[in-house]
């Protein structure tokens, strides 16, 4: 039994009388009820709770924002439901259909990979439309911000900061919003699944919380649309290509972590001398995994000398350099792998 709350007539009916959901179910007696955009009617979760307890109905509830549910003091079904994140496609999920250049330029939203005969211009238009739809439906319709104009400026500034350590002073200057407003806006991006934080690595939790995080948008195509670059050529060996490749691969790690249900913690490391390790993976047990991401097609040792030097301080840790170079090699205990092979080795798949 499918309930699509984008259907205005159905949304009005269930908003007025949420319990009518069970009346509808009593006719079909379906073992499953799927409710899409469930955040539009938070009160429905009380009825879902009742359906689980009294009728043993199974529910699949999908939505793009947990913020409205929380704000409405909704029944979040603690202990009765499992939460999953449905990210864009991953490279492993697409298998032989995956194309790196297309993924970097246009992202991995399912629509652009599952529909045939979509031209590059079609995808470009759709990405710009996606950004506008996000502003209209997710932010404006749910009244997450009072004024959209400052939020639009914030989105552009946030896109320019993608993959960098967050600098709220720059945001105040470029977007014209306060530090506290910027923090709230980033929370909106996380709650609506548009991006995610990468926290700084630190053995002390207290120190970790005091340092600045990085922020990555969830999809390279959406990121390029926010920067007004969707449809523009993406040239290898450029700064933009390296940034987009890093964003793509960081998101691949998050997708695999979520889909394989790994209880791993991801962070980045920056030393006092401003040397960075792109990704530090901490497992519940065992030594960490250090990952350096490079977009080059042929291995360049001088480009990773700082990583190799700092990695020596992590005794017993696994160390990977992931790039587009198809040739695998080991430099001491540092494993240089093509990014596809590296992902499979790290996640053991």
Quickly describe the structure.
The protein is an alpha/beta fold and 349 residues long. The protein has 16 helices and eleven strands.
| Overall spatial form | globular
C-alpha-based Rg, rounded: 22 Å
Assembly type: single chain
Strand order of the largest sheet: 5-4-6-7-8-9-11-10
Distance between the termini: 35 Å
Biggest β-sheet: count, sense, barrel? 8 strands, mixed
What is the helix fraction of residues, given as a range?
40-55%
Structural class: alpha/beta
What is the number of strand segments?
A: 11
Mean pLDDT: 88
Low-confidence stretches: none
Query: Percent of residues in beta strands?
Result: 15-25%
When the domains are counted, the total is: 3
What order do the helices and strands follow? EHHEHEHHHHHHHHEHEHHEEEHEEEH
Number of helices: 16
Descriptive keywords:
single chain; 349 residues; alpha/beta; Trna Endonuclease, Chain: A, domain 1; 3 domains; 3-stranded parallel sheet; 16 helices; 44% helix; 16% strand
